[in-house]
Amino acid sequence: MTTNTQPAVLIVDDEEMVITSIRAFLRLETDYAIDGFTDPEEAVRRLETHPVDVVVTDYLMPRMNGIQLLARAKELQPEAARVLLTGHADKQSAIQAINEIGLYQYLEKPWDNAQLLLVIRTAIERTQLLRSLSEKIAQLDMAHSNLKDVQSRLLRAFL
Questions:
Q1: Is 34 helix (H, G, I), strand (E, B) or coil?
Q2: Does residue 3 carry a pLDDT above 70?
Q3: Residue (of 109, 23, 24, 33) closest to 66 by Cα position
Q4: Deepest of 84, 107, 134, 154, by most Cβ within 10 A of its Cβ?
Q5: CB within 8 A of 95, min separation 6: which ones?
Q6: How far, in Å, CA of 155 to CA of 114, rounded?
Q7: Cis check: omega of the bond before 110, within 30 degrees of 0
Q8: Residue ranges of domains in the chain
Q9: DSSP string spanning 35-87?
Q10: What pLDDT score was predicted for residue 2?
Q11: What is the percent of the chain where pLDDT is above 70?
């Protein structure tokens, strides 16, 4: 893996009780860094400055819905996994979001804690693998560039 830092989870829901519940559960079960926001715009500002591994957000929120928030998360941190919490009536919107924003997973409210934990753990693994892959690709690009430079110098030396 690329980093030994603590995995970071961002939780966004306009109901403080949901954030408190998920945060308390994750703190019991994991050692993840967990940030929670009731204001989606504050969450976006956090995403602008702090890398996260997974964003878990409610769908229905004032001023910015969960899909809009996850679209911004995708722009700011494309490797971060995006998870949407929905009510049963919002299921069609969640399915639509899978294609629009590359949704990693959606969970219906009320969620099952064991399922939520599994989704977050696999989302973090996915994010870390994507970041590692991006670093490897960058290293290969650099090595390729260096080889092309050496090749050019050799050709100039012999011609």
A1: strand
A2: no
A3: 109
A4: 84
A5: 106
A6: 61
A7: yes
A8: 8-133
A9: EEESSHHHHHHHHHHS--SEEEEES--SSS-HHHHHHHHHHH-TTSEEEEEE-
A10: 41
A11: 96
CATH number for domain 8-133, candidates 3.30.360.10, 3.40.50.2300, 3.40.50.720, 1.20.58.220: 3.40.50.2300
Q: Are β-strands 105-108 and 8-12 bridged in parallel, bridged antiparallel, or unpaired?
A: unpaired
Q: Hey, is 105 helix, strand or coil?
A: strand
Q: Residue 57, Cβ neighbours under 10 Å: how many? A: 26
134 is written with which tokens? Answer: 């991006």
Q: Look up residue 90 and give its DSSP letter.
A: G
Residues 83, 59 contacting (CB under 8 angstroms): no
The owner of tokens 């994750």 is 26
Amino acid identity, position 158: F
Give the pTM.
Answer: 0.86
Q: Which amino acid is at 150?
A: V
Tokens of 38: 């009731």
Q: Which of 2-16, 29-43, 68-82 has the lowest mean pLDDT?
A: 2-16
